[in-house]
Amino acid sequence: MRVERITRPAWADALGRDRFGLWTEIVVEPEGGGDSVTQRLRWIPPCRFLMGSPEDEPLRNDNEGPQHAVTLSRGYWLFDTACTQALWQAVMGENPSRLTGDDRRPVDSVSWNDVQGFLTRLNAGRPGLELSLPTEAQWEHACRAGTTTPFSFGVAITPEQVNYNGHYPYTDDAKGLFRKETVPVASLPPNAWGLYEMHGNVWEWCADGQRDYSAEAETDPRGPESVGAKRVLRGGSWKDRARIARAACRYWNLPVDRFGNFGFRCVRVQA
């Protein structure tokens, strides 16, 4: 992936570079006192990629095609993990999650509307931060990390790479571990761009709703965003079959829906 020269954004507390590329960090101080929480974001440059799945991808869904070229005209900073329970608690002062016991687990049981409240409060505490949910296109691009295979890890996955229901492997792969719960973020290997658990663990809300694909190339596509419109979730979760964790797999729910395997990660689009 091409890496651009970028100075530390005014809203960030740190900037660095490692084998995956550029990163920034924000440090959030809980309003009621307690330990600060650090969240890292990865830089994803503007790009063009193929969105959706090819017709010959095993166990694909019809709504994943036709595969089409998408241009993302602006780079963006993306959380390298799903939002943790620690970060949610630091911002919101409470923890809605069902699967607790380690505050490095992703927050779960949050609706799309809940996430908007989190974003409003977090952004208000830091001028210029302007975090949002990623669009479906931004999410899939980041998940793929330059690949065109069903998973960023290749044509198959194992429970050592992804937290899913290992009793239901992809195609004819061997059965494996079913953890029956989330794992702390960054527990499993990252993709090639340093992003953790883009496949499995928790479903991740996107900003926009489901759009119908066409074969035509698109730039910065967005699905419906009217009040009450269903919003896309991506990535699958700890309780889903391997096929659901594919990069192209799409799901959607009402913005008020709140289930035990719904989480999110945030994006900051470059101006």
UniProtKB/TrEMBL annotation:
Instruction: Supply one GO molecular-function term.
Output: formylglycine-generating oxidase activity
| Organism superkingdom | Bacteria
Instruction: Kindly name one Pfam family recorded for this protein.
Output: FGE-sulfatase
Domain (Sulfatase-modifying factor enzyme-like) ranges: 43-268
Q: What is this protein called?
A: Formylglycine-generating enzyme family protein
> What organism is this sequence from?
Azospirillum cavernae
